[in-house]
Records
---
Amino acid sequence: MEKLQPNLFFPFAGVAAVASFASCSNKQKPVEQKPLNIVYIMTDDHTAQMMSCYDTRYMETPNLDRIAADGVRFTQSFVANSLSGPSRACMITGKHSCANKFYDNTTCVFDSSQQTFPKLLQKIGYQTALVGKWHLESLPSGFNYWEIVPGQGDYYNPEFKSKESNGKYVKEEGYATTLTTDHAIEFLEERDKDKPFCLLVHHKAPHRNWMPDTKYMDLYEDVEFPYPDTFNDNYATRCDAARTQEMSIDKNMTLVYDLKVDELKDKEAYKKEWNIDGWQASLDRMTPEQREAWIASYKPRNEKFINENLKGEDLVKWKYQRYIKDYVRCIKSIDDEVGRLIAYLEKEGLMDNTVIVYTSDQGFYMGEHGWFDKRFMYEESFRTPLIIRYPAKIKAGSECTALVQNIDYAPTYLDIAGIEKPDYMVGTSLVPLFGGETPKDWREYLYYHYYDYPAIHMVRRHDGVRDSRYKLIHFYGEKNEHNDAISCNELYDLQSDPNELNNLYDNPEYADIQTRLQARLDKFRVDQKVDEY
Ligand code: SGN
Ligand code: CA
């Protein structure tokens, strides 16, 4: 049964009510100022390794770090299905993929008749808005205002469609990250200022193929980034899934589309590379000025690369450097634009009664295991960054080590607005963690399920459980030559083997742990009515 309990402090008479409440008789205890507003910023594929409040090895993200410094950084934050569409469906419904039915990016259309947190917030008087990437195929529902890009969107001069454009995409001039922020600010400017708001700012960046803004094309060019420890992983001890994937920097990352060596695109050896047409289309979108800036920056570096005729290890190293540099350049724009949005909130005096959340739809491989992309339940892509600023309730600079997951976002936003979550949202509000203590009955296990196979990058279907130390992964969906279903399991001790190189499944020393995790996995499958494994 769904219970709608409007915020008891401010039943949406708006900001005016906040002021009058706060100014009532000074004999009364000061009333805690409930945040009325939510700004939920989510990027696409931004991994915690590339955020200096999580990892100092690579780049500086001062504006994101400021959110963490003013609020809380979740150190054990995960997704339920490490892929854009499914992850977004989990976060908006508070349900696992098997319940919200958006299993994969390849076949699914989101059933928008389902209950979602924006719909519930809207019902109690919130102004709800979504700008940027949506990726759930059906039209957004539960939003007063939306401006979305088609599918993955484009970096340069992207199209947006809105409620007002009657479903027609309109091309806008500029860089996606900037334009998405412009639309966010546009909504904030035009909103009904007597009502609380919930604004979802969902950026396209830093999704493949990592095209930086013209002002950052040369950033970090002289820096050499170190390989992660597992770059040359040989996948010994693992199931076939780690060997049969197609997300290797060496084997699957392309020189033209991914690494932007435009000068190779007409050469016979490269004509068949993945998405040459996509590359050409992204160049064709540019204005003459953008194209000129692009050529001025990339062409001399590309020509040098072609002349060097690198092979083997040297070629892989060059690919890794180009990849990681373009990725961090995209993040630099994200960091700037988050800073710009925060500056707007500050200017408008909204910082005290607005909760600011920054996260990503999943993590990403920055060369760990030799990979790019995500999908696997291994740490780098199972994790997602999560920082929240809410000064009334969260101590500045705090850290939360509880196991949290993106199915928790919907219950959290409802809780912030003073609404009890519907029972079918299996996620848990994070609000009880804000005080700095983890409640005794907090979850001890996370469930994960990935379904997008066969599909691009060829990561096999798997589900699994993780506790604070161990992880059990079950790969399934393959058949042998007799057409019998075959599966394979992996067990990791993340304390002694944080890089997940040593599969302990069926190791007698870990028999008890394996049995315990298997029982938990079985229980999740029954409780969540999991439909395949
Ligand atoms: C596209 C990308 C893939 C990526 C998926 C899913 N190829 O298909 O590399 O894994 O999106 O990403 S591309 O040639 O179109 O760039 S997700 O973030 O939307 O899940
Ligand atoms: Ca993504």
---
Amino acid sequence: MAHPERDPNKVCFLTFGCQMNRLDSELAAGRFEEQGIATTPDADRAGTIVINTCSVRKHAEDRALSNLGRFKAAKRRDPHLVLVLMGCMAQREGDRLLARYPYLDVVCGTRRFTDLPRLAERARSAGERIVATDDEHVTIDRKPGLRPEPFRSFVSIMRGCDSFCSYCIVPYVRGRQVSRHPDKVEREVRGLVDDGCVEVTLLGQNVAAYRHDETDLAGLLERLDRVPGLRRLRFITSHPADVSDRLLRAVERLPSVCEHLHMPAQSGADRILSAMNRGYTAEFYRERLGAARESIPGVEIASDFIVGFPGETDADFAATTELLRDGGFNQCFIFKYSPRPGTRAAEMADDVPDAVKKERNQALLDAQDEAARAQNRAKEGREFELLVEGPSKRDPDRLTGRTRGNDIAVFPRPEGPPPQPGEFVTVRITDSTPLTLIAEHVRSG
Ligand code: 5AD
Ligand code: SF4
């Protein structure tokens, strides 16, 4: 079989994990572009392949490694191919990865990815095998033009995490919490908006804990809200214990800030929350939910839950299900507990059998399906502003977009010139599924 030539001036990114990883891939891709190396989705032609890995669950690591395995034969055929593993797993495993995978060239941790073009070039020209997982300060400033979507963008406002939830690998692979200077954040946002961006999502493991000198997240939102031309501002993710009344008031008061919170509950059982080191009770979480709904009319709240944490009983799980049912979440991300070496929870017995984890996972998904169905039904007949994302993948005659609350809506392409990605339309909801609002176009602009 003939194989296409690989182009040393092309790089292909395969990205796993959270939005933070997506942003890191974008930033690294920008650095390659500065060197004249363009990104391509075609792994068969790229001279460099970068797999950006996640460590949050074992499953995510297994997927990254099986992707790496896909390129073993390609590397044998073409020794000039540079294979890079970056991100959380690279940080966690370091040089063990080079030892285990002889065809891997570069292991690049969570703080060295802006250096990737240079590391990849060293691997290609000198045949070096490199591990870069040290704690060098990462510069995450970007050139606004180097981003995949012209109309919206992520902006990192902090890195690392100090919460030390007992199950979580993040503080170990992403390091201590550091908030970025608000002037730098504002400069980046202004640059993006000048370049045509209308929506910015501020990113951090726990953005609600953002603080730089006197500026907290509410203060930062207030500054960014004044940037002319920025229509939508979001921020994810928020630890419930850090969601202050001041923050809720800022979301309500500032016109560009979307009525949307991602505030993971993780569990509804106090015993489990305490073993998770979450620092709040189910009652506290419910109180914050109530405060958010009271302060911010129409707010949509998303949550994460972990099932099968060590010691989780049927009664604990019932409390979680109840919290999910009462929560009125528009989106829930549900995960089976996965022990991560080095975390405190990994020292506890992983005593919930996998079959039970699976069952609880499915039961929560079903409960969320039912709740979301009812909530979406209640939106039928109402009008929403959508930021258009483009044609629907399933049906090119329909367009998709997102509401300010971060619901996905689809609507038939209206007569005349179709609304373009990045434009705003008003739609009326006519029907719905648990995951999608079905709408009709009311007006553009
Ligand atoms: N096992 C399962 N889920 C986890 N999460 C984080 N660590 C683990 C783990 N060890 C989930 C949490 C978090 C989301 C990003 O991933 O719900 O909010
Ligand atoms: Fe993101 Fe955490 Fe996964 Fe790293 S381990 S990619 S920070 S979710």
